[in-house]
Amino acid sequence: MKAVIEELEKRRANARLGGGEKRIEAQHNRGKLTARERIDLLLDDGSFEEFDMFIEHRCVEFGMEKTKISGDGVVTGWGTINGRIVYLFAKDFTVFGGSLSETHARKITKIQDMALKNRAPIIGLFDAGGARIQEGVDALGGYGEVFQRNVLSSGVIPQISVIMGPCAGGDVYSPAMTDFIFMVRDTSYMFVTGPDVVKTVTNETVTAEELGGAKVHTSKSSVADRAYDNDVEALLQIRRMMDFLPSNNTDGVPVLPTMDSAERIEQSLDTLVPDNPNTPYNMHELIAKIVDEGDFFEIQDAFAKNILTGFARMEGHTVGIIANQPMVLAGVLDSDASRKAARFVRFCDCFEIPILTLVDVPGFLPGTAQEYGGLIKHGAKLLFAYAEATVPKVTVITRKAYGGAYDVMSSKHIRGDVNYAWPSAEIAVMGAKGAVEIIYRSELGDPEKIAGRIKDYETRFANPFVAAERGYIDEVILPRTTRKRVCRAFNMLRHKTLENPWKKHDNIPL
Ligand code: HXC
Fold it and tell me: Is 170 a catalytic residue?
């Protein structure tokens, strides 16, 4: 027995070395951790249960039969994050650049199948160059199998991708079909094909950073949801995020104990909105002051900053927050903001996460740039997402709710459950000046008359009371009581049951 145990230990030690000491050193020199070091940081101490440590590829092309490495470039298994089960796979760049072979794919699909069957989240740590070139169609087929499972799992279990090295081909397409993508600054890249292929095909000279670095994907393309400075920070933040997420689409949100009283009154909110309706204020401040312990996990913090999206807790229960940000473009809804928020609303609805919407929006952004870019369709995405959502929806209008954007931002008319407004709310088709210039066009030559008309319009419409008179606003609340009122509303909605008519699936304007 001793001999076989020793043999096992030897094989294990060998497998743990992946591509060998030299390649591990190269990985460290690039500022990256190895697959196993990453898993150690991501999971609770000692909780990792590894599968398929001894798998080898079966390729005999290009002399590959002479290079077999136990594990074949990916470490797979399951473990816990703060006590809750997650499945994971971590690409090992030290083995054939983490590229995916037929057997490597089988390791991943085994984990995907287990995660789906057992209804727990799956996390992929990517550091890999896509399909293993030497394997040809076997590798492509392997990726097809992974993609299919990404799609079947979508909306059933959370799927999280962390990009931690140069990633190409299938190693970006599979993440693209998951719920969230996180990147590491300066060491991770995402592209369909790398700079060398770009040069060959388009004769364009571009660096990996310019083509698909964290900055590009978090602020320009919006492919990635957040970026972190290094592997350690990224993995610790993923742990933090997982605490907000339900394990699947039926378990409901996790509930964490909190010392923050639901009855907490926040006096400073009474003066958050400036007297001048055109002066911005920071919506982050409102979020921080009403959620449990001010803890807000923002999603897409560097993209379309005119709208904020992220997770927080109210009385220990996770909520998704969507909030216009008056500090950026006055909080206007444009194509990017609409797409960003729509995807977030849909994530929350898939996984039964209640939605809190904080509204201060002057409308949709006019102009040719937006219209040519498809604002109508992108805006419709957000409208569609809110209107189809059946989770509890609580809305607070702090200031402007103008035009179509009033309807879109979780209004009563699209099944907002509890809709509050602050006394500073202005609910109207548009701002007073714009409105008067249209309906009193003939008087435009008389500035005094126009000023009077503007004043009249403001008195009549720049308040929440017309909407409240009609029941479109359930109650005008004191800003300082917002946390209390919102907590109570979500509590009241805890067992909300609402079903959309049966359909195969809807046809959201993509
Ligand atoms: C086999 C690969 C590989 C691959 C990298 N390697 N990618 N081996 N198949 N796809 C190997 C390299 O040969 C090298 O081996 C080691 O991994 C490290 O790679 P380097 O190139 O030295 O590293 P780096 O300079 O950091 O560049 C990383 C990279 C680049 C950007 C990922 O390697 C690259 O562009 N690879 C090819 C990407 C690609 O086009 N993949 C196919 C995509 S098609 P040695 O032994 O020298 O250390 C695809 C289909 C899916 O995925 C379908 C999508 C819809």
Answer: yes
Helix (H, G, I), strand (E, B), or coil: what is residue 13?
A: helix
Residues 30-45 have a mean pLDDT of 98
Mean pLDDT over 404-414 rounds to 97
Looking at the fold, whether 130 and 169 belong to one and the same domain comes out as: yes
Tell me, using a 6 A CB cutoff, whether residue 97 lines ligand 1: yes
Q: Is the pLDDT of residue 434 over 90?
A: no
Q: Residue 260 has what pLDDT?
A: 97
Catalytic residue among 120, 342, 405, 428: 405
Q: Are residues 171 and 222 in the same domain?
A: yes
* 97 and 184 part of one domain: yes
Active-site hit among 169, 213, 320, 403: 169
Q: Does the annotation count 262 as an active-site position?
A: no
Residue 45 has pLDDT above 90, yes or no: yes
Read off the CATH number of the domain in which 139 is found: 3.90.226.10
Our answer on whether the CB atom of 73 is closer than 6 Å to any ligand 1 atom is: no
127 and 271 assigned to the same domain: no
DSSP 213: B
Q: What is the DSSP-derived secondary structure letter of residue 255?
A: B
In this prediction, residue 59 has a pLDDT band, given cuts at 50, 70 and 90, of confident
Query: Residue 428 catalytic?
Result: no
Measuring from atom 49 of ligand 1, which residue has the nearest CA?
169
Q: Which tokens go with 75?
A: 């470490």
Tell whether 210 is covered by a domain. yes
* 40 and 93 fall within a common domain: yes
Q: How far is the CA of 231 from the centre of ligand 1 (A)?
A: 21
**Percentage of the chain exceeding pLDDT 90:** 90
Q: How many domains does the structure of the chain reveal?
A: 2
Task: Report CA-CA distances (Å) from 225 to 222, 229, 250, 298.
Answer: 7, 14, 24, 9
In contact, 396 and 420? CB cutoff 8 Å: yes
- Residue 361 and residue 386: Cα distance in Å, rounded? 16
Same domain, 39 and 140: yes
Number of other residues whose CB lies within 10 A of the CB of residue 500: 11
Range of the domain at 297: 267-425+463-492
Strand partners of residue 358: 323, 396
User: Is 169 near ligand 1, meaning CB less than 6 Å away?
Assistant: yes
pLDDT in tens, 189-237: 999 999 999 999 999 999 999 999 999 999 999 999 999 999 999 999 9
Mean pLDDT of 135-140: 93
Ligand 1 atom nearest the C-alpha of 189 is 31
- My answer on whether 237 and 285 are in the same domain is no
